[in-house]
User: What shape does this take?
Amino acid sequence: MVNGFPPGDPAALPTIEQVLRAYAEALTPWATATAQTMLREVNRRDEAAWAEYTRELSRALRTEIRTAPTGAAMRALLAEQVTLIKSIPLDAAQRVHRLTLEGVENSTRASVISKEIQRSGAVAESRADLIARTEVARTASTLTQTRAEHVGSEGYIWRTSGDSDVRESHRDMNGKYVRWDSPPTLDKMTGHAGQFPNCRCYPEPVIPED
Assistant: This one.
């Protein structure tokens, strides 16, 4: 869409922004369906993981975990994910606007600005990939937290994926006990295992004794 307009032309800005904002709104039904599909799949995996994890627990506790009220969490996650998907073209509009103004203010960089504007599609794709990776992990972590707190869990053990790509701040958290009501702050962001951008860590719930 962006490349259909003269790159760096201030006169084209209102039209570009209007087109991208209209596209963001048109995405709503698709974004909702896509997010719902992901939520159902992650929820299915989480239920299967709990079934394995609670095999040694009492039947009453297993039943309580299966009937945990995850609906509110699912609805909140759905709304957040639809907003994130729709933000991709809106961010692209803001990016084109910013780059165009920079080109106007500094004409010696016009060719560089033009190339950057033409990269808007690649930048948007990269952001979409980040959202997808982050939201799958965040959904899994949130559903685990919801089910764990429902049966009285007060916290979890932080687990990493255990490879060389784990960032240092998360590696330092591996094996530590974290309370659900006290998410840690790492690299100036606050959240639980699996809830940070590109995070592949996960919470191992500590379940109270029967």
